[in-house]
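S1.2 Input.
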Amino acid sequence: MIPVTRLPVLFVGHGSPMNAIEQNEFSLTWEELGRVMPRPRAVLCISAHWETWDTRVTAMANPRTIHDFYGFPRELNEMQYPAPGSDELVELVKQKIKSTTVVEDQEWGLDHGSWSVLCRMYPKAEIPVVQLSLNRQLSVQSHYLLGRELRPLCDDGILILGSGNMVHNLRMVTWEADAGYDWAVSYDADLKNWIEKGEHEQVVHYEEHGKPAELAVNSAEHYLPMLYVLGAGYADEPVSFFNEKVIMLQRAFYLLYRSLDLDALFQPGLK
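S1.3 Output.
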C-alpha cells in the first residue's frame, strides 16, 4: 500500500447493477481498488440515483439497501449491503458545506449507484457510508463548487466517491452494435482531454459544446457526480483513467484518482 497524505477522490461509471454479482473486468477492478487503496474511515457517496429538491445526507444509523431497478435476477434483488451510517461524517459534511443548507434524511438509504460498487470494493460492509443527494435546484456550477467545499474531507480519511457515467443516454442504447456512436466517442474524448488538462470549466459548461454534448448528457444526473469529484480534486494533480470501454454504446466505467501512482497500485491484468 502506497503511503499518501490524503485519500484520492474517485469517479466510477457504475453501469449495470449486475456488476454487483457478476465477475467481469469492471467488478474485478473495483475489488482490486478496495485491496490496494488506503483504507478510508468512511465513504461519502454522490450517486446519480438520488435526486432531491434540497441538499440531503443520509443520517440514519443503518441505511437500508435500495433495489431501485426492475427486471433483474432474484439474487440481485435479494442482495443486502449493511454498511453503517456515520453521525460524524454527517456533521463534517454539514460543517464543510456553507453555500446551502444540508438536511438530515432518515428515509433514503444506499441506492444501487452506491452499493453495487461498494459491495465489490468493501464486501464486508464494515466501512461507514453516507450518501449526499443531488439537489435539482442547484446550477451545474453549484454542484462543482459543492465538491470544492467538500475537498478538506480527503485530508480527514474520508473517501469521496462519485457514481454515475461520463456519457449516458439510455434513449439511444442499441443492443446490436459493438461500437459507440460518433457523438459519444467524440464527447468522451473531449471530456478526457479537458480533465487531463485540468480544464474543469469546459466540463462544467457542457451545454456550450454542441450536439455531441447534448446527446451525451441527455439528462444531467449521471454527469453531476463527476463534477463533485472534479471539484474535490485539484486541477494540477495527476489524473488516471481505467475501465475505459464502450458498453451499450456508452463509454463508461471511469475512475478518477488523485495523488496516487496507479502503475504501482494495479496489477498489469487490471489496468
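S1.4 Remarks. The radius of gyration is 17 Å.
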